[in-house]
Amino acid sequence: MPPHDLRRPFKRAAISDQQRRRELSLQRQAQNRLDAQHQARCLAQTILSLQNDSAEPEPEFEFVPQPEEQAQDFDVRQAARLRGSEARRWFAKQLMLPEWMIDVPDRLNTDWYVCARPAGKRCFVVSSNGTTVSRLRNGSMLHRFPSALPNGSRTNNSSRSGQSYCILDCIFHEPDQTYYVIDMVCWAGMSLYECTAEFRFFWLNSKLVESGACNDPSPYHRYRFRTILIYDCDQEGLKAAYTGSMPYMKDGLLFYNKHAHYQSGNTPLVLVWKDENCSQYVLDTDSKGQVPEQQQLVLELLDDGRLATSDDPPVIFGCLDRDFIQKTGLEAGNLLRFAINEGGLYFADGKLERADLHYLGKPNRSRAFADSYSKVMFQYTARHSPLRIEHLFASISSLNEQENAISDTDMVG
After folding, report:
1. Per the domain annotation, does 335 fall within a domain?
2. 248-273 residues labelled b (16+ CB within 10 A) or e (exposed)
3. Domain carrying residue 197
């Protein structure tokens, strides 16, 4: 097969409908009118009060509900009492989780931002009632500490109401003990769920510095917070994010659609991409930290024996025989680990038709969800036909050439 012509935009053979789902996500968020303020309030309450699996009790915090919250459903009143896998599953749904970049998005050079993702622990940070709490994606507590965030310590709590809270989407970078803020969900009680990424990043960069959260640690501000550099995804921006020096260890690149709202769960409007030059871990490793010879994936067992990804709707990778399920004592809802055999994955008309899988057992209990389809496909293509940084640069160049050609045509006309 001849090498790909890097002068043209990179288009791999159809293996997903990621572009179509990006367009649908933008349409849905334009039609969505959920109570964003209520959603942020509920999340803050749960992060503060969610029970740990450890036996050590946590102090209780006063969180005054609004009148409309008194009769709310599961998310409001019961999530804080969940334990174990139920708590992990609920909490993991609250973060906005990027899909893996399978193909190059349309209008990458005009409609997208790019940044270098810090390596570390993804978490929510909430400040309220004079304290600050960070929780990992599985719901377990990372730190409880005073901070300079709104209502984040006793020293900056006196002039604020009980509803003045803050929710930040962060990555905790252990080498320098710093929270790198990759998104802002709520600031001083104002929800940003339905704000575009363009506005959220502007608000984040202005408000975080004003608060003093970026100052050096002190007894009243235990950890430093820092923003990350966000670039327009043109040639210069992509190069800066990919090759530029950062104060943290990189773990790939993040791409944000400028019009995307903060959407809980998997979203095709935020993408992650990696190669060996910007991430230490491109291919998944096993429990020993080694890259297995065969790609592994985690799927969820459904009631009818089908094996599904974490997507909504899920992608089905196969089905287990009922006798095998009974023999092994598996139950619906179990997460199961498989290896992809030599038969690999087979596609027809851009859709997965069959997968040659070998059952390995159950994954670590800390897992909350099955793998997403985009992660499985990124890992699969990384082993066979990776999407390279040259393809991203070539697509941007091609888009620029098309725009210039259209501009020249308009001028002639």
Report:
1. yes
2. bbbbbbbbbbbebbbbeebbbbbbbb
3. 18-59+80-273
